[in-house]
From TrEMBL, chain A:
<keyword id="KW-0547">Nucleotide-binding</keyword>
<keyword id="KW-0808">Transferase</keyword>
<protein>
    <recommendedName>
        <fullName>E2 ubiquitin-conjugating enzyme</fullName>
        <ecNumber>2.3.2.23</ecNumber>
    </recommendedName>
</protein>
<dbReference type="InterPro" id="IPR050113">
    <property type="entry name" value="Ub_conjugating_enzyme"/>
</dbReference>
<keyword id="KW-0067">ATP-binding</keyword>
<dbReference type="GO" id="GO:0061631">
    <property type="term" value="F:ubiquitin conjugating enzyme activity"/>
</dbReference>
<dbReference type="InterPro" id="IPR000608">
    <property type="entry name" value="UBC"/>
</dbReference>
<dbReference type="GO" id="GO:0005524">
    <property type="term" value="F:ATP binding"/>
</dbReference>
<keyword id="KW-0833">Ubl conjugation pathway</keyword>
From TrEMBL, chain B:
<dbReference type="InterPro" id="IPR001841">
    <property type="entry name" value="Znf_RING"/>
</dbReference>
<feature type="region of interest" description="Disordered">
    <location>
        <begin position="1"/>
        <end position="32"/>
    </location>
</feature>
<keyword id="KW-0863">Zinc-finger</keyword>
<feature type="zinc finger region" description="TRAF-type">
    <location>
        <begin position="153"/>
        <end position="191"/>
    </location>
</feature>
<feature type="domain" description="TRAF-type">
    <location>
        <begin position="153"/>
        <end position="191"/>
    </location>
</feature>
<feature type="domain" description="TRAF-type">
    <location>
        <begin position="225"/>
        <end position="275"/>
    </location>
</feature>
<feature type="compositionally biased region" description="Polar residues">
    <location>
        <begin position="332"/>
        <end position="347"/>
    </location>
</feature>
<feature type="zinc finger region" description="TRAF-type">
    <location>
        <begin position="225"/>
        <end position="275"/>
    </location>
</feature>
<dbReference type="InterPro" id="IPR001293">
    <property type="entry name" value="Znf_TRAF"/>
</dbReference>
Amino acid sequence: MAANKRIMKELGDINSQPPAGCTINLPNESDINNWEVTMQGPPESVYADGHFKIHVSLPKDYPFKPPGISFKTKIYHPNVSNDDRGAMCLGMLRPDEWKPPNKIKDVLALVRTVLAAPQPDDAVETGIAEQFKNDKAAFENNARDWVERYAKGA
Amino acid sequence: MSDSNSTGHSSLSPPPPGSRRSPSPGGTSVSTQIALRNMRRLEARRNMEENHYLTQKARNCNLNPPVDLRALDYVSKYDDNLVCPICRCPLVDPVLLMDCDHCFCRECIRQTWTTYSPLGPKGDCPTCRMPAKLGPRASTSKILVNILDDLVVKCPKSENGCKSEIKRGEVQDHITIYCGYAMVECKDSGCGQSVRRKDYDLGCLHYNVSCESCQQNMPKAELETHWQLQCPDRQVKCDLCSSLIYYRDREEHRKEACPAVNVPCPGAPLGCTNKSRRAHLDIHVKGCVLAKLGPVLDAQKQRMDEQESAHKLINRKLEILETGFTAMQDILSANRSGPPDNGSTETLIVPSRSRAESTATDSTRIASADDYDFPVPPSNRGSAIEPESPPTTNTTRSSTTPRTTATPRSLTSPPLRPAPQAPFPRPTDLPPPTTTDFDLASPFSTTAPGADGPYSSPLHHLLSMHESLRDEMARVSAALTELDGRHSMQILNENLRTRDEIAYLGGQVAGMGRQVHWLTSAQLQRQTPGGSAAAREVGTGASAGGGGAGGSVEGAVNAMSTAATALRGAARVVNVGGGQGSPTSPGMRRGVSEEGRTKL
Ligand SMILES: [Zn+2]
Ligand SMILES: [Zn+2]
Ligand SMILES: [Zn+2]
Ligand SMILES: [Zn+2]
Ligand SMILES: [Zn+2]
Ligand SMILES: [Zn+2]
Ligand SMILES: [Zn+2]
């Protein structure tokens, strides 16, 4: 009940002042624990032209447990797993690092920051991280190619 | 009072055994005995009351669980600094962490620490990550607590209908003691179920009724809640436009009617990104060019699709016609390149005048335009006789122009009259599309402004040409048949006459024979003794003619042979005439077969 109250408050907040480049939808109006965020790639990054669908799942005991972030749109990024889940590894979301006062708004802002500046030392896709560190041009080419292929729909 | 209490709760707190009947021990004064008894009685009653209160409280707790103050709706405004960073509500039972002095609800910090450490409530400060714990004097100052407890909230039963707004510090009391929508035990003690406090005096309401609007069965006690919260026919407020709607219709209302819902501009498929409230959509649509264009473009698209399908059909037709047309051209040109002096049949098929015209187009066209030509402007005439367009094009065109009015006349015309002398149609005689600016050398020119679309006019023209070719062919073949009949008639007449002549010649020969005979016999009578021998010699043939025969006999024989030669000649003449005239003669047959081929 208290958790619902907080989620409702955050939803109200985020709808009245959406964070930069993000729009929030509830795929199922009666389920406020699953959000769908459409994030525009940060400007002047390789993802600038892409629109990425991100699924935010809020656990039952949110905010005491961290929300889950997963990319529904494929993205070539060292910190996003290249599989069906598209899980994003963010330090802030790790159970031992999560702080209940954190808001979804902050999480989304961080996601956007990580898109603009990948953190190869914290990578889930080590191959991409290696490429990012050693051959930036090739990484950027691949990333742009993926944006073109997957993140241009609609 | 005490009796009813003791009976009502005997099972829970049996009165001390023998509290009334036990005899007082001896040796004590009556007054002390009485005082003692009273004290015991008082103690017992206090016990009973305490027990009663505890059970009541326990039941009340079951019926109305303790209020979670963090889930309340606040009526009064509150300072952001009073908000717990974890639950985002005004702090409930606020505590200060040791060392960092960050403040949270007691329950929030406990939950934070227990969620990941099963060992118990300890951990970092959720805000600053300093190792933290709750000190013995963790509670904040009374002032802060008072400020928080004075915030006005809605009764937690407001969803059920309670309209009370109370101070947060009094909410628990409101629920346990006053709120008419909190649950209490049913008045009928045998029922054991709960009822709203305000319905308590109505007696037991736990019998089944059915909702008048949705026919659902439920206990009477729940009917009001059903109407307020569950019945699909209840009225609810749309949370966007705050109009009253039936719960059942709310989806539809959102989709169709709610003026507060953001709907995309009808021009969205064309690129208008505007989304405005339904109520304001009209205003936008009035100014939006794309929205106005929408229906027009839709109609155009539909028309275009229609036209495209029609166009495909016409293209196919055209293809078929074109191949047919080319085949016809081939046949005609093959005919033309055949033996040039083949008399009347050739003249009929390929009009000599059109051939002359095709060679002298440049100079004579304009002069003859008013006669039969298409109304092609001079600038376009050049393209009509482009070098790559074969000369047969002109021939074909002029010979295939529609002649619906000329056909009967050509049938009644004399047999050898060449076809081109038949009048060519004037522009006004042509079907309407061909009177437009049509150019045969480029039949797909889109300049024709015909009302039936750009390709209709050339097609129409081709079609009409095809039709007229057909007519022409029919006419030619009819003329040919007629000619054929006339020919055989002539030959028949000629034959008859020749036969008569032969008969006449035969008669003459016979007469001559008789004269010869008479002459011979006269001669024989004159030279009586040797006459018979001479006559015999004549009878066996001229080869045996001896010197004995007279000169007159020789002359007669000569005359006979001359007559025979003449007869043979006549017979040959007849034979030749029949050979030329007979329809089965090879030359004529070829003519007919050629005619037949062009008819295809
Ligand atoms: Zn709290
Ligand atoms: Zn702290
Ligand atoms: Zn109430
Ligand atoms: Zn009852
Ligand atoms: Zn109902
Ligand atoms: Zn509405
Ligand atoms: Zn518009």
